[in-house]
Amino acid sequence: MGDSSSRDRKVRGRKIRADRSKKKRRKAKKQAKKQRASNGTDGESANGTDPSTLTSPEEIAPDPFVETDAVTEVRDKITGWLEADQPVHLIGPTGCGKTALALSAAAERGRPVVWLNGDEAVGTAELVGTHSGGERYEERDQFVSGVSKTTEVVRERWVDNPLSVAVREGATLVYNEFSRSDPAAHNVLLSVLEEGVLERPGKHGEDRTIDVHPEFRLLVTSNDVEYAGVHEQQDALLDRFVGVHVGYYDAETEREIVAAHTDVPEETIERVVDAIRTLRDELDVVVGTRAAITAAEGLSVFAEDADEFDDELLADVFTDVLAPKLAGEDDEIDELRETIEDAL
């Protein structure tokens, strides 16, 4: 804690509630399905695609997912543009629910989904595919009696990566944190979106290109450009997207989202969400809905009674939740806590 005078916190045991148990069972069931797919026990898709690359819409749909009017309105806009065969770029602050929206919209299409996380290490090969090792075999020539000639042949083995799989299978490619990848890696998307053809550098012969399946769709998410680690993408590519901005939801929606992810009393959720919305206006750091979920989970542990706690504990919890956004210097943490105390 930044404030050395903060009281010692007591950790109370959590009560095992029926709804939490159900959530855990649902999560375990989904994980088991994914594991079976990765082991190949659920069969392969057409063209021999590794089934662990393609995910069914039922498995990819976020659970829990809150559907208030505000959420449904944004998702319908996304699915509408996808239906119009337009690639969609979801843009918004961290912790506002972009990823859940993207997965829900992709699941609504009823087509397989391919997932990709962007970062500095993603290049063209990570998108399209690459050679992975080789297969060795021998050819024996015995056309001349008594003379045997053996030739060792090495054939390179090509492995398709997410973009190749998605365009061939007609899947929805959900490219999360799209703007964290090097813009040069995305040049390959231009021919996909403009000409309907994917070129696979390094692949030779007739298989060098793939005709884009008519059901292929592209849905990418990005933080706002002022975030650290975010690259500005080339205009030629961005001109082919439609942009849907995702902001923070209204108070009612945020309360329902926190309630869906935690097991705390309604009064606690209301107090946490009210505090988050106040801090969002008062602090220079990003305070997303995810921070409200984390704070509510913290209160369920540190408060002796989940629906009775004072502002001191609330300030303690919010300081812990938001401190990672700072450099970590003691004076910065102290200043953060003072600002939180004043706001509360």
Automatic annotation (TrEMBL):
Residue ranges for the region (Disordered) are 1-66
Any one of the GO CC terms: cytoplasm
Q: Per the annotation, which location comes first and is thus the protein's main one?
A: cytoplasm
Species for this entry: Natronococcus occultus SP4
Q: Which UniProt keywords apply?
A: ATP-binding, Cytoplasm, Gas vesicle, Hydrolase, Nucleotide-binding
Q: What's this protein's name?
A: Gas vesicle protein GvpN
Biological processes per GO annotation? gas vesicle organization
Which regions are flagged for Polar residues bias? 39-56
The protein's location, in the record's own words, is: Cytoplasm; Gas vesicle
> Do the record's keywords include Transcription?
no
List all Basic residues biased stretches. 9-36
Superkingdom of source: Archaea
